[in-house]
Amino acid sequence: MKRRYSFKATGSVFLLSAAVALTASTEVRAQQVYSSQQADSQQPSQQPPAPDAAQLAAMRRDVQVAASYQLPDDFLPRMIRTLQALRDAGLQPPAPEGQMSLDETIKRVESVEGIEPVLKSQGFSARQFVIGLTSFGITYAVTSNAGNAKDAPTLNPHNVSLLQKNPDAVRALLQEMSNQPAQQQ
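Above: the chain sequence. Below: its structure as C-alpha cells.
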C-alpha cells in the first residue's frame, strides 16, 4: 500500500525553514512556528519542546545552506510537474516531526516507498527536491515579507531573480503545493 500524506507536508518543509529564518532571534517565536505546524499536521496536540540554542544554531545553518542553494533555471516548471506526478501516484513526503535537520528531512523523503523513481523521472534526487523546495520557500517568504526580514538569511541572487521573473510559475507552484494527493481506489 502506498503511503499518502497531506500536501501540507511539502509546504511545511520549506515554510518551517522560512519561518525559522525570519524569527530565529527568539525561542518564543520558534515555539509558535512549531505549535502552528503541529496543529496543521492533524496529529495529536503533543507539541515538541522549543529548540535549544544548539538546535537553533543548527537550524540557522540549514536555512542558510538552503537559502544559498542555486535553483536551476527550469526549477519552477519541473517542480510543478514533480508535485503533480507525486500527487497522481498518491505519494507524499512525510511531514517533519519536531526539529529536523535538512539531512534528516532528506532521509525521511528517501524512506517513502516509490518516491525515488518519481523524483528521478523529473531530474531530482531526494536531496535536490528537499533543498530546492526549501530554497524556493525561503526565497519566496523573505522576498514577500521584506519589511520583516531583518534577521533573514542571505538569499541567492539568482533565485530572487528567478522568482521575480516568473510570478505566474511561482503562483502555480504554490497552488500545486496546496493540492491534495489523488485518492487510491
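The chain has one domain: 8-178.
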